Amino acid sequence: MIKEEKFKVIQFTREFILRVDKELDNFPRKDFEIKSRIRNNCFDLLEMLYEANLIKDNNRKIEILEKGFAKLKIIDFLLNLSYDKTLITSKKYVKLGNKLNDIIMYMTGWLKTIKEIEKTM
Question: Which CATH fold would you assign to the domain 2-120?
Answer without folding.
Answer: de novo design (two linked rop proteins) (1.20.1440)
